[in-house]
Amino acid sequence: MTLAPIVERELRAGTRNWLTYYLRVAGAGAALIAGILFGLSNGFVPNAGGRLFGELHRTLFWGIWLLVPLLTADCLSRERREGTLGLLFLTRLRAGDIVIAKGFVHGLRALALLLAVAPVLSVAFVMGGVSWNQVVLSFLLNLSVICWALAAGLLASASSKHWAQAVIRTALLAVCFILVLATAVGWALLPPTRPGIGIGMTVVRWQASGDYMLLSGMRFLSNPASGVALFPPVYSGPLSSWSGPIQVSPATGIRVWRAGGGPPLLSPRSAPLLWSAAEVALASLLVLAGAIWLAGLWTRRVWQEEPPSARVLWWRRTFFTPVLWLSFFRRWMRRKLERNPIGWLEQRTWSGRLVTWAWFSIIVCIYSSILGHPNLFRSPEGLGEILAWLLAGSMALSSAASFRRERESGVLELLLVSPLGERQIVFGRLAGLWSQFLPAFGLLLTLWCYIASFSPFPRADADSSGALVFFLTTFFSVPVVGLYFSLCYRNFFSAFLATLAVGLLLPVWSWDLLGLAWWFVNTADLQRSSWGDAVITQIIIATICWVSLNARLKRRAFPLERIQA
After folding, report:
1. At what angle do helices 380-400 and 350-370 cross, to 10 degrees?
2. pLDDT per residue as tens digits for the range 252-273
3. Domain residue ranges of the chain, discontinuous segments joined by +
4. Which of 116-125, 134-143, 225-234, 286-295 shows the lowest mean pLDDT across its residues?
5. 230 φ, ψ to 5°?
6. Helix %, strand %, coil % for the chain, to 5?
7. For the purposes of burial, counting CB atoms within 10 Å of the CB of 493, is it exposed (0-12), middle (13-18) or buried (19 or more)?
8. How far apart are CA 268 and CA 280, in angstroms?
9. Integer distance in angstroms from the first to the last C-alpha of the chain?
10. SS3 sequence, 32-97?
11. Angle between helices 163-188 and 271-302 (to 10 degrees)
C-alpha cells in the first residue's frame, strides 16, 4: 500500500513544524479573547452559556476560514518549486495519494484547532444554557467549513507554482466557496417544507430570494445560536391561508409567527435542523472528495515542468501586456524607478499592479450595485466597515510578505550594501505599499463619507466618523507593523498573524482588556473603548514598530537564509 508511507512522511514533517503548535495556541487565545469580550458586554451570568457558545463558534468559524486555506495554499506548489514533486513520482505513488496525504495532514491540523478551543468552550457549559443540539450543530457546521476550506487550498495549490499565485487563487476560491456554502445552508434552513415536523400547515409558496438565503445561511453558519428569521412562506391549513415569518434556532427549534399576532406555532424538536446540517456536512465531504480528485488530476498533469503553451502565451500577451498609452506607462514606471526603486519592486510586474486595480474594481462594483438601496443611507457604516476590514487584511497580507522574496533570494543583502540608507529602504517600501492600496482605500473612504452625510441619525454619524478616522490611521500604520514582523519572523504565516494581532486586533481590544482588569481590581463601572482609543493605540504601536524596524535594519538583526513557507 503506497498511501500509508506518504501519510507518515507528511505527519512527521508536520510534527517538526513549530507552526502546528503555535496554531493551537493562537486558536485558544482568540477564543479566550472572544469570551472576555462577551463578558465585557453581557457579563458572566447564569444560563448565558448558550450565547457565549455562539460567540465562540463565530470566532472559530472565521478562524477556520482565515487559517485553513492559507495553511493549505502552498502545500503542493512548494513541492513543485523545490523539485521534490518529481522525486515522489519516481516511486509507486500516484497523484491522488499525494493530494490525500496533504489534505489528511492539514485536516488533522484543523481538527486539532477545534480541540484546542475545547477548554474555552467548557466555560459555556459551566455557565449553563448550552443544549446538546447546539453542540452537535456547531460540530457539523464547522466540519462543513473545514471541508470547503481544505478544498479551496488544495485546488489552488495544485494549479499553482509560485507562492503569491497560490495565495491569490486560494483567497478567491475561499470567497467563492463561502458564498456557495452559505447559500446552500440558507436553502437547507427551510425544514417546514418537509412533512411531519409538527406544525400541521402546508407550504403553498415561499416568499424568498437567493440573496436573502445567502445572508440567512451566512448568519446561521457564523452563529447558529442567534436564530435566523427567514422570509415568510404562505401557508394553507385549518386556519385558512396566511403567512408569517419563521425563526429557526437549535434552542427553540422551529417557530412560525402568526402574521396577525397571537402565540406562535411551535415545533420544539431540533431534528429538522440537525438533519439539514448533517446533509450539508455530507455534501461538504463529497465536495472535498471531488476537490481531491481534481487536484490529483491537475498534479499528474503539471508535475513535469514544461515551457508555457501557446494558449498561456496568448493569454499573457492579450490580457497582461500593456497596450494603451505605452509611452505614458513607460515614463511613469521609469519615474517610479528613479524616485523610489524600492517601491518600484512592488509594482514592476502585472500581478503587483493587479492587486491595486482589483480592489478598486471590487469597491466600484459593490457600491454600484447597492447604491439605490434605501437602507444603505440609514446605516452606511456596516458595508463600509466590512470592506475596510477586508482591505486592511489585504494590506497586512502584502506587508507581511513584502521582504520575503528579497530575503530568500538574497536581494535584501544587495540592497543593504547599496548607497541607499536604512531609512530610505524602509520608507521606499512603505511608499510602494501605500501607493498600491491608495486608489481602493481613497475611493472607499470617500464613498463612506458621502453616504454618511445623508444619515438621519446623529449618533450613528458620530460612530461612523470615528470608524473613518480609525481606518484612515490603519492605512498608514498596518504597513509599518507588517514590515517589522516580516523581518522578525522566518515564517510568513507567523508574520501575517502577528500583523493581524498587533496591527488590527490589539488596538481595538487593548482598552477593553485594560478596562476588564481595572474592573476586577476596583469593581467600578465598566466602560467600553471607543474608536479614539483605538486610534491612539495604533499610533503608539506604529511608532514603536518604525523605530524598531530601522534599528533592526541597522544592526542586520533579521534572518537572511532561505526559508520554507
Report:
1. 170
2. 444 544 444 444 444 434 556 7
3. 3-191+275-306, 193-271, 340-555
4. 225-234
5. -95, 165
6. 75, 5, 20
7. buried
8. 21
9. 30
10. HHHHHHHHHHHCCCCCCHHHHHHHHHHHHHHHHHHHHHHHHCCCCHHHHHHCHHHHHHCCCCCHHH
11. 150
Map grid coordinates 463619507 to a residue: 449
d(CA 296, CA 148): 17
Residue 156 has pLDDT above 60, yes or no: yes
Helix (H) or strand (E) holding 228: strand 228-230
Instruction: Determine how β-strand 246-249 pairs with β-strand 242-243.
Output: unpaired
Is residue 287 very low, low, confident or very high in pLDDT (cuts 50, 70, 90)?
very high
Model confidence over 306-316: pLDDT tens digits?
677 777 777 77
Least Cα distance to 75 among 119, 109, 111, 106 occurs for 106
Q: Which helix (H) or strand (E) holds 448?
A: helix 422-452
**3 state SS of 229:** strand
Q: How far apart are alpha carbons 483 and 499 in whole angstroms? A: 9
Distances (CA, A) of 191 to 73, 209, 233, 243: 36, 16, 12, 16
pLDDT of residue 95: 79
pLDDT at 195 over 50: no
Write out the three cell numbers for 543: 511608532
Closest C-alpha to 216, from 194, 200, 239, 232: 232
Cell output for 452? 454618511
